[in-house]
Design a protein that fits this description.
Blueprint: H1 3-7, H2 9-25, H3 30-46, H4 48-59, H5 63-89, E1 92-94, E2 104-111, E3 114-118, H6 126-138, E4 141-145, H7 151-164, E5 170-172, H8 177-184, E6 190-194, H9 197-210, E7 213-217, E8 222-226, H10 232-244, E9 254-260, H11 264-279, H12 298-313, E10 317-320, E11 324-325, E12 330-331, E13 334-337, H13 344-347, E14 354-360, H14 363-372, E15 378-382, H15 387-394, E16 399-402, E17 423-424, H16 429-435, E18 437-444, H17 461-473
Parallel strand pairs: 3-4, 3-6, 4-5, 6-7, 8-9, 8-15, 9-14, 13-14, 15-16
Antiparallel strand pairs: 1-2, 2-18, 7-17, 10-13, 11-12
The protein binds nicotinamide-adenine-dinucleotide (NAD).
Length: about 475
């Protein structure tokens, strides 16, 4: 193997063992796969407090938020897989077109084999174990490389997997970028990456060397449109939750708001109310709320503060918030207006608790703006008339939610993922199963004479007539 792998010989060894297991798991039954997934659920149920504590240690994530945004998405994914696995694993017969008369064909969903899961820090449990559920359901082995920024959660994930699986089945490789780079040299059958578009490109470039297939769950700036007919009070409450949960460090958080000019003032007023109701109901100061997580590390803290400072220096108006406590990595939910195109906040994914609000006159302005930027992971439209239909038709985004935000992440029948700059491939439910599955088409021909045998050389009139008819009619 190449240079880096010499320093990481254990990675190479485990990968080789997993290749052997993956071949054995090709024939694993529904029961065997279900048992592997069920083990995860049992462990999670009996270690809920430990998971909450790890997330609290990493960035003071409120335990209830851990319950509904780290644990529940995984347990519901497990239950959905357990319920549907039998159906998904079945070979499907396909109808026979006229040109194939006499043959029979099926599609067999076969496990891709070995898989690598590289996960980010922002939902460190959910985004490492969620894809693992899909990998195991599909019959794949997995090496997981959790984020180095959430040391407590990543260590817990390693402990969990160590207790449940042999390294040749599922294994956790903790460490920094160098571990991810060493892993990316290996010829995995599938790489499932969740993280930034910048690193997504590196992953895809590395995967191309081995022609490994990839799922890239990336980020970007998800716009939120408030039309003239939207119910502003309802929208403000939903947006405030979707934006500030996890302290704004959510891939599908509303990144910026485009609001019809008639709704501009009411929206700002309603958002202020919504933020206070959520994080300061007793007027003791938002910084004292136990329900607001902290920024993951000093680098991101400085980055987000820098975005705000740059905007304010270039003329943005602080409508709400702006407060911070550096040694706590606390950033107050913040609303800014007066956004201009030369501000960094207008270009970079914010990934923190700052919400820029931009007024518009016509829906066409929103469409033009969205289409001028890389395709977003999510698009949210608050609308009580039909304006969302035009936006739906004329823009492209990973997913769309109308009259809410973020919620689609929990809907297992909606393939979750981005498009273009926000990602490649889909996950959750059946889409997640398919990400780790190769759909193998199998055609069975009958013995002896068949319609294709008439086409063999020496080519004569009969063959010519058949080909002419094929071209003309089929
Ligand atoms: P990141 O891209 O910096 O890191 C993700 C993972 O990649 C980590 O495990 C890290 O160790 C590894 N990594 C970093 N540099 C690498 C390199 N040069 N080579 C190989 N591996 C490398 O992302 P992050 O900061 O952890 O997460 C934030 C980003 O993830 C945001 O853009 C966010 O929108 C996106 N995200 C997307 C989803 C989704 O489901 N689409 C979910 C969560 C986060």
């Amino acid at each position: 193997m190449k240079t880096l792998l010499k320093e990481f010989s254990d990675i190479y060894e485990i990968f080789d063992l997993q290749r052997f297991t993956a071949n054995q798991w090709r024939t694993s039954t529904k029961k065997e796969r279900s048992d592997r997934i069920q083990k995860l659920e049992n462990w999670i149920s009996s270690h809920r407090k430990e998971i909450q504590n790890a997330l609290w240690e990493d960035f003071k994530k409120p335990p209830l938020e851990t319950d509904f945004s780290e644990i529940y998405p995984v347990t519901s994914e497990i239950n959905h897989n357990l319920k549907n696995l039998g159906k998904w694993m079945k070979a499907k017969s396909v109808s026979t077109p006229v040109n194939m008369l006499g043959t029979k064909s099926i599609i067999i969903p076969e496990p891709k084999g070995t898989s690598l899961i590289i996960s980010p820090w922002n939902y460190p449990f959910n985004l490492a174990i969620g894809p693992l559920v899909s990998a195991l359901a599909a019959g794949c082995t997995a090496i997981i490389k959790p984020s180095e920024l959430t040391s407590a959660t990543s260590a817990l994930i390693e402990k969990m997997i160590g207790e449940l699986f042999k390294p040749e089945e599922v294994c956790v490789m903790n460490g920094g970028v160098e571990v991810a780079q060493a892993l990316l040299e290996l010829p995995f059958d599938h790489i499932f990456f969740t993280g930034s578009p910048k690193v997504g490109k590196i992953v895809m470039e590395n995967a191309s060397k081995n022609l490994s297939s990839v799922t890239l769950e990336l980020g970007g700036k998800s716009p939120t449109i408030i039309t003239k007919s939207a119910n502003v009070s309802d929208a403000a409450r939903k947006i405030a939750f979707g934006k500030f949960v996890n302290c704004g460090q959510t891939c599908v958080a509303p990144d910026y708001i485009l609001v019809h000019k008639d709704q501009y003032e009411p929206l700002i007023a309603e958002l202020k109310l919504a933020i206070r109701d959520m994080y300061d109901p007793n007027h003791k100061g938002i910084e004292n709320s136990k329900d607001l997580a902290r920024i993951i590390d000093p680098r991101h803290f400085a980055r987000i503060k820098g975005l705000l400072q740059d905007a304010l220096e270039k003329g943005a108006k602080l409508e709400f918030g702006g407060g911070s406590v550096e040694n706590e990595r606390y950033l107050e939910p913040t609303i800014v207006t007066g956004i201009k195109s030369d501000m960094e906040i207008f270009e970079e994914e914010i990934f923190g608790p700052i919400l820029p609000i931009i007024p518009f006159d016509t829906i066409q302005e929103c469409i033009t703006l969205i289409n001028s930027k890389p395709k977003p992971l999510a698009l949210y439209i608050f609308d009580q008339e039909k304006e969302h239909q035009e936006i739906l038709q004329k823009t492209s985004s990973g997913n769309v939610v109308i009259n809410d935000c973020v919620l689609h992440f929990l809907h297992q029948n909606i393939p979750f993922g981005g498009v273009g700059n926000s990602g490649l491939g889909k996950t959750h439910g059946h889409a997640g199963f398919l990400a780790f599955t190769h759909e193998k088409g199998v055609l069975k021909q009958r013995i002896g004479l068949n319609n294709v045998s008439l086409l063999r050389p020496p080519y004569g009139n009969v063959a010519k007539k058949i080909v002419d008819s094929l071209i003309k009619w089929l």
